[in-house]
Protein 1
Amino acid sequence: MTRVVVVGAGPAGIAAADVLSRAAVEVTLIDEAERPGGQYHRAPASGLQLDMRRLLDAAHASYAAFHAQAASVCARVDYRPATLVWGVHGRAVHLAARGFAQSVGYDALVLATGATDRVMPLPGWTLPGVFTLGGAQAVLKDQGCLIGRRVVFCGSSPLLYLAAVQYLRAGGKVAAVIDTTRFAEKLRALPDMLAAPGVLGQGLRHMAALKRRGVPILHGATIDAFEGKARVSAVRCTSPDSAPLRVACDAVAYGHGLRPETQLAELAGCTLRFDPVQRVHVPETDPDGRAGHAIYVAGDGGSIGGGQAAAVSGRLAAAAALHDLGLAADVDVAASRASLARLRRFQKGVAAAFRWPGERAAALDDAVILCRCENVTVGEVRAAIALQDGVADVNRAKAATRCGMGRCQGRFCGAGLAEVAAACVGGHDHGRDRLRVQTPIKPLPMALAGDLSP
Amino acid sequence: MTGPSGPPAAAPEGTPSAILHRVAAFDTPLLRFTLDGRPMQARQGESVLAAILCHAGHLRRHECSGEPRAGFCLMGACQDCWVWFGPGERGRACTTPVADGMQVSTSPDPPA
Amino acid sequence: MSGTDAGVAIVGGGLVGCMIAYALRQRRRSVIVLERGHVGGESSGVSFGSLRLQGQHEAELPLALRAQALWETIEAETGESVEFRRHGHVHLALDAEQQARLERNARNARAHGLDVTLLDRDEALGRWPFLGGQVVGASFSTRDAVVNPRLVAPAVARAARRLGATIQEGVEIIAAEHDGVRFRLHGRTADGAVRSVTAETLVNAAGAWAGTLAAWFGETIPLFPAGPAELVTEPIPAFVAPVMHVVDGSILFRQTERGNVVIGGHPRMRVDAATRTARVPPDKILTNLARLVALVPRLRAHQVIRSWTGIEGYVEDMMPVLGPSISTPGLFHACAFSGHGLQLGPAAAAAIAELIVEGTTTMPIAPFDIRRFYVSGQPRTLSLAEEFQPDVLAQAAPPSRARPSS
């Protein structure tokens, strides 16, 4: 029987698997996490007494609906939690779970691999107590822990406000929200953001709630450094009117929006293109997510769009896969396309309102650690690029310096490396180069044993 | 590879040096594990990362710089929280649940 | 830039092309290197990094020894660290047949003045206690060394430039001919600009693509592309200094100074020279990991973090093509290194530079004449089935035995 493999059990993967499970195909749904949800609908570990209704407030209804749907989908398909897809080759995905390796062949592959935080390296970003913004939310939802007792939320993302509000609801203290984009930039992006007035309204309510609770919110600041010895103790920044500020804290949640996890798409042979609005590389797809022969991409792994867009794109990708297999799908394609277009327009506004501060790379001190895996500094990369005749090729800089060569394969230094390299040759707009991925996409235990069962 | 590799400074839960601050409890059985030989407790369902960082100021020291690290992405992507589970096993602290009797160590045994 | 004229044009800015440029500038010849991508960006940058002497074919060993002497001064020559380390090389035998091979290799090495020590099982396990029980014997060669292949070609290119070489990156040569007086090379850049170069002398250092250049001059080099499977672990506390290499090539590893273990393992894989794409298939990764863990059980706890390969040019006798063309005076081949280009590079480069400047060379390159492909009966000394996966050999064209038409 025809097999469709779906990678990822977040909003896009579950939506895709739901559609596929109603057609005459076998569906294998593979997820690295123990429970479905992805990052967007992450659920508490079993036995954790976390009041999700209180934490999520108005968003709880969609969370509950997702998990009801996910429970039903996972029961209907070949669901493989806690399983890493570490390679794609020859129409098969290669898996590792509980110390065993296995491969699963597919007739169609839907990649719903999600996104991780995009960060600009800064002085002190490797200090204990500095975490990604997504990480701050993950450890709260999954483990019932806050990343500290006085937390600064900083960077540029609507999730700064959401996460700060969730920390308040969970009983935490928010030292400040430091947003690197100016309020005026957000106003200019309003027309696009009005494409999804509900989501926009939620964001505005979060800002208002923080103000009511007396949380200082700084728009248009520049983050200069995370300070501390064995642990972060303050965020040093500069206000829009050039005043130096120092916000004391014992933890930092930091992020400049999201970057798609494109590794499997790249290994599957998809073409990646630079999206000038989001300033990230994304797989080239048609409007329904077709990304190559028998490959479909959905959710944030294809284009940063948030949970609602992910679900819609998951349905569209599943419909496209079924259509290409000669099967019918129970999806209103025209309505889904319209809905996705609207949500993507909103995200275009979000990308402008919460801009990636790529130009900051030029100002980074040479001593700043750029690659936290391999401990490579900004200065080492600049020196390597100077030696390569000023060619800003990041893969070449990687070969010369090891930047991006470590355990995370450039997930967390890649965006900064592209900007540091671009700044060396005098232009923010040249930051379009990207690190190539290699198998395995995440570290693999050497003792991984092949599964001898058929 | 040089640099200090001392164990993380452990302190009673809730003291300022602990990175994480628990706001919701587990109603699951108590598990015992060791961290660099010292006895520790956790609840079933707790991640190794949470079980350590609710008591300690860091997880490991970087192989090259010796600087303390306490994880970063907390979702299995940055690979900055690998620890050892006794000889011969290694894993990401943020995505591995604590198991009863686990012997967690923050520095590797030399392989020879 | 269009209409450049040079004394010598070198097609291919890999390690060998850059080293030839360096050697020619030492001899004050005007030289231009034309590289399609960037210097060292293909096979030069992706190899395992071993400068191995023991076990080299006896026809190759004299040149390999000359090359090693040049490697030993590479950092002084280039003024840069290329992570050259002389920690020796260990060949391991896992059965009696392999042990016999070690003994043969050792006799051959000693005949050429290379110091190789044979160790029995107990001696080997005593010296390298991390080895598992499969090992029956070992041979240790102290003069063998390693370099960081990612650093070396760019460093040599910079040294050549400092001596006055012109190295043009991003120029692909799409055709070349000899007009009776000079070579005419037709190139283009990635953005479509035309580059033409004329030169008195032409060097074919085009790696896996060298067969195409040879064919423009009516010559056949029966090259086929293949790639090594390379893996690397996270950093591990230091435990081994020399390269450890099961003699059949089924697994080999070395540890870098920062602690990462680099792992190789034959047979070599099929790669696509036309689209220039090459990746290590997941099954190959699992096979090599299983072999490594069987050989070094204590590594089972560690993680492999990355794999890579590259596109190398092979011929069936696994020896380079080095020396003058038989069709066109002034054309020289330095290609078909069959996975040995890193180690042989400096001596091969010196040979070509001497041939161009002095018309003769002291380097022992007689076995590497292109004419061997035009006469029958070059004895095959290696089992190709051991060296290559079957799908590589299936695509390798049978060598032509006909004389070139020109």
Protein 2
Amino acid sequence: MNRKLKIAVYSGEIPSTTFIERLIKGIAKTGSAVYLFGAKKKSIAYTDNISVVAYKHNKFSKLFTLIKYSVLLFLFRNNDKKKLDQIIASTSNNLVYSKVKFYPVLWVKPDVFHLQWAKALREWSWVRQFGIKLVLSLRGAHINYSPIANHDLAEMYNTYFPKVDGFHAVSNAIAKEALKYGAELSKIQTVYSGLDINNFSEIKKTKQPVFNIVSVGRSHWVKGYSYAIDACKILKDSGLEFKYTVVGVSKNIELVHHVHDLKLTHNISLVDKQPFEQIKQLIANADVFLLPSLKEGVANVVLEAMALRTIVISTDCGGMSELIDNERNGYLIPIRNAVQMAEKLMVISNLDSQNKNKITDQAYRTINEKFTSDQMIAGMIDLYNSVLKDT
Amino acid sequence: MSRKITNKPTIGIVLISVPSYSETFFQNKIKGLSQNGFNVILFVDYLKNFETRPPCKIIRASNYDGSKLNRLLNASKAILSAIFINPIKSFKLFKLDRKDGLPFKLCLKNVIRNQPFFKAHIDWLHFGFGTLTFNRENVAEVINAKMAVSFRGFDLYLSPLKHHDCYATLFDKNIRYHVLCNEMKTTLKTYHVNEEKIRIIPPAIDVDFFNSSAVKRNESEIINFTTVSRLHWKKGLVYTLEALAILKNKGLNFKFTIIGTGEEQERLVFAAYQLGILDDVIFAGKYSKEQVKDQLEQTNVYIQYSTQEGFCNAVLEAQSMGLLCVVSNAEGLSENVLHDQTGWVVQKRNPLALADRILKVLELSEDKKSNVRDRARMRAKNEFNLSIQETSFIEFYKS
């Protein structure tokens, strides 16, 4: 396997989430050629061995993509085109849009097509018929709760998981969930997210006037912020002076109402999304980073908080116990339990500096030893090589 | 405001769309007014397919959705109407909006958007929700009609959280307010609204339909709990599930049926799954009126544990059926159910307290249960029937 690998990383949109972008750049650094397909939201200056083969969300761009790749395939790989056309005709409800999405992939014909979101699995299962290895990431909602509420989705997973060449699990816990839908254990490799710890070492902390709690995440019920707000009510009633800032939820009317309803507007700030550098500073300044989620793979923002030497309290939801060793490098509490959340916050508000430092030093070491970008990339390349070893 | 009110005035009711069958409040109101000889005109923003045509004229009050071409055509028509058909009214609206401090461009937009109101001759312009008055605060004055606004719950308690001071202009006007309960009246007063301008008219239900003649009380060991509501966060269904999980851990054998659909289904199914009660919860989806009644007939305890609620017709229907009702103290619910008399009111956002109350209710003697059922039934029949609501609205428009 000495030739340069062609890896397609597909999330549907370009650019993708922070951690998928980190993955893309990391794979490219290993010398593999990375191809990004899908819809381009904005232009990104990638390095030379990252190729963007994308269309914009307008009719002209899609038409141009369709014509360009129809002609190329017709002239040089007409048999493949005919075969794909037959597949599209028998499986797709939107023939034209499917061609816009699929033709560029068929033209590039990567060695591995790495699909980031499981819900799109049925749509992309055709790639295997052209010798492209299909790797699926097992992430968040797609595995953890959507198939529980949606029987059709669970049925789709049962049909298509056995056909996947390799799975990337973001945690052992999510790997276990995938087994319920027919994923083969030997094909699953847990590769934890990682970060470049050097980017988190130089942030100076500023002492806050009151006990400072921070959460960062998308505005979604699975993040469990309702429980955090209920916990804050208990803190307030106990007389603790504190400030809780939740980033990314300013427009969430349920949470705004909840804070208002419990008369916590002086204690809780629900703020809009912020630039990454500001978020880093906010987490660094906090006494506690709180993850009240109901389910997670491994929450990337917790890796960042630990790298920033901020104490983490996380619910024991999914894969978080693979990162946090309770009372050694952070704290784990049960899901859906505002009382225990409040109790743990009060314990930390009374912790002396020596004990705080012991926890945060250990958290930093955990990230440095087990959750680095280099480890993530090495794990991913290993996964790609394992699915390609028989070819 | 000089137009003389005749004995049978014309009421213009402004809604988002034609009320569906399940929106009993507006269906009943329109029907009641029409039956009493009032002329009703319904103004709606969206005129999509509707299930039942109400007995009144329907006018589309806004026509700026759809394709760009469609919007352009309708805007052109409205501009021509403003210049050639309603120039005086249009200018008056522009002046009044400017006086309220609205930006020039928005005043022009309002003139274009509100043209459909100008062709109607009405005595009262009654907005069905507070939010429907945005950018229409001066329309009633322009067409020489009295103005009324109904607040329903979300528009009084949630909209101001989304849009700060969104009613500042409205509350300065000399208009009449309709609210569903005392709690809402108190809230309105905190905005310095004159209490004499506020009238409480609670919702009403069809007490003849929701009667208890056919109640088949479940005598088996499985307790049937029911909630009828949209699957929306404000209905407090996650808290309800948590309370029921506590009861399950105490060994209670139950089925909980949630009748309704909504965007929170995935969240609720996952909550039931994580709480270990998924097999005990039935997400029944949308039910017809008859199916709702059938389910209520088999229910032991009706639960409505909302975190925000104007009043709630479903609880009235349950009481009318003689059900034991346990509700939260969210806004109008504690007036809907009288604690310890027609049901039980529990502090909201407290699943432990809810579980505790449900257990206590189940343990009550049959005599006590029977007393509560009777009082609930009688109060629903006497105080929340359709004819009282009709009379109240007729009085409202006479004032």
